[in-house]
Amino acid sequence: MRIAIGSDHAGYHLKVCIKEYLEGSSITVGDFGANGPAEPFDYPDAANEVGLKVARSDFDMGILVCGTGIGMAIAANKISGIRAALAYDEETGRLARQHNNANILTLGGRKTDCQTAIRIVKEWLSADFEASRHLSRIEKIRKMERSGHACDPLHDQPRLVTFDHPLIQHKVGIIRDKHTSVKVFRELVQEIAGLMVYEATRSLPLEAVKVETPLTTTTAYSLSGKKMAIVPILRAGLGMVDGILQLIPNAKVGHIGLYRDPETLEPVEYYCKLPGDIGERDIIIVDPMLATGGSAVAAIDLVKRRGGRKISLLSLIAAPEGVSKVHEKYPEVDIFTAALDSHLNDHGYIVPGLGDAGDRLFGTR
Ligand code: RB5
Hints:
The protein is of the alpha/beta class. It is built from 12 helices and 18 strands.
């Protein structure tokens, strides 16, 4: 059993006492601060550290202590996958596990003495989640997390994000223009993709890091090691990759090649090379046009079959038909687009659209 433990300054003494008890019980403890009671150490920083360690399974469970235990619970519960419960006696400690499957216990250093805290910890650690009727309730919490609208269950909807930023709209106007040259078209597609990726990466988790400025030591933030993969659908998707890599230079790039079977009109895979650890990465599938949605769904199918889990789709221009097709099968895939156009014509082209993005990128008309 590995337990991550953390406190703020107000919870420091109780944390030390709990840590001694855990280590005396042959439990592996990771201590993520505070380092003393005197210096202010903000509880959200400790909650973030410990919460991420538990959410990523670096540790099995976590214990967080602040003055009341309340701030730690509020902060840790912001992390997806964390169920942090404040307990103030043995019964609440046990129920936090039996009913709520709490993976983090929070305690109040100014409210609970050391012996009581140890009894609470013992109850919490030795109890088992009862599942049965409580399982569906935990599932509902997980669903709230996945929806991204935890405060409003009515909004458990597939997510389509369209960008109304003037810079993006201005550039989209230029690439729609049939007189725009291949060179300018190519440059603008990269630029728009780069701008869009800001929004697509908004929910990447951060972790607190200590940084020495020329003046003092402070807490700053760094991406918490979440790895990314960009997966262009060949060939037009290639036109967006460099723009994204300028912002996320460490992302790995996979490639998916699909063609349309002339008889069945279904997309057929002819190439697929993805990063070996695709299951651990946040994946952005990129294709400038989301038209019928056939290629996008086939690409998501492929990535999922190879173990991909957290997938979003980035398209410069989307048709409602394509958005519906993707979300019918994969409501959990967020779609980011710079423009949601009117419809598809009889040939499957987006109207008003911009023509064939591949031909316009590579000058192959
Ligand atoms: C710090 O003084 C105190 O506010 C904090 O430890 C905690 O009780 C917050 O919930």
